[in-house]
Amino acid sequence: MTAIWTVYLSGEIHSDWRERIESGVQAAGLPIEFVSPVTVHEDSDDCGVAIFGAESDKFWHDRKGAQLNAIRTQTLLKSADIAIVRFGEKYKQWNAAFDAGYAAALGIPYITLHPAEHDHALKEVDGSANAMAREPEQVVEALAYIINGTMPTRHANAAE
């Protein structure tokens, strides 16, 4: 029986990177279960007040949601075999940076995924990462290699 790997998908919620990784993994037949934070922005922001009651102060409104989200994030990240941490182009993903640091502190291997324009800002995060990818398809190839030892059919920048 093949072990099922748990992969935590952290970060940016405004593009299709998660779907691209999930469909690539499915096409490759990799034994992976994906987990992630709540990716509906409004639900993530408003869960605390929806459950525990309204707050007149935005700080406490946000804090109630952040505390609930932290329970989910910490629990799922602790149980993950690998984390993928995505930093997108449009917004600053402070939560993703926190997740990368948390994964590093727990000894959970992680791969960062971001455009070259973020290289300088993320140098410490990338420095602790086990790998850094530019495209979701590279993450799929990395997961195939990690799990099955499968080399990609195309060898990007491979020595001839």
Characterization of the model:
- The chain contains six helices and five strands; from the N terminus they run E-H-E-H-H-E-H-E-H-E-H.
- It is an alpha/beta fold and 160 residues long.
- The chain has a five-stranded parallel β-sheet with strand order 2-1-3-4-5, with helices on both faces.
- Strand 1, helix 1 and strand 2 form a beta-alpha-beta unit.
- The radius of gyration is 17 Å and the shape is globular.
- The N and C termini lie far apart (37 Å).
Can you give the mean pLDDT?
94
Helix vs. strand class = alpha/beta
Q: What percent of residues adopt helix (DSSP H or I)? A: 40-55%
Q: Which strands sit side by side, in order, in the main sheet?
A: 2-1-3-4-5
Q: Per DSSP, what share of the residues sits in E-state strands of 2 or more residues? A: 5-15%
* CATH fold topology of the domain at 5-39 and 79-148: Rossmann fold
Q: So, CATH architecture of the domain at 5-39 and 79-148?
A: 3-Layer(aba) Sandwich
Distance between the termini: 37 Å
CATH superfamily of the domain at 5-39 and 79-148: Response regulator
Shape: globular
The total strand number stands at 5
Residue runs with pLDDT of under 50 for 5 or more positions: none
> H/E series, N to C?
EHEHHEHEHEH
The Cα radius of gyration reads: 17 Å
SS element count, helices: 6
CATH class of the domain at 5-39 and 79-148: Alpha Beta
Largest sheet: 5 strands, parallel
What's the quick description here?
This protein is α/β, with parallel strands linked by helices. The protein has helices at residues 17-28, 41-52, 58-78, 94-106, 123-128, 136-148, and strands at residues 5-11, 32-35, 82-86, 110-113, 131-133. It has a domain at 5-39 and 79-148: Response regulator (Rossmann fold).
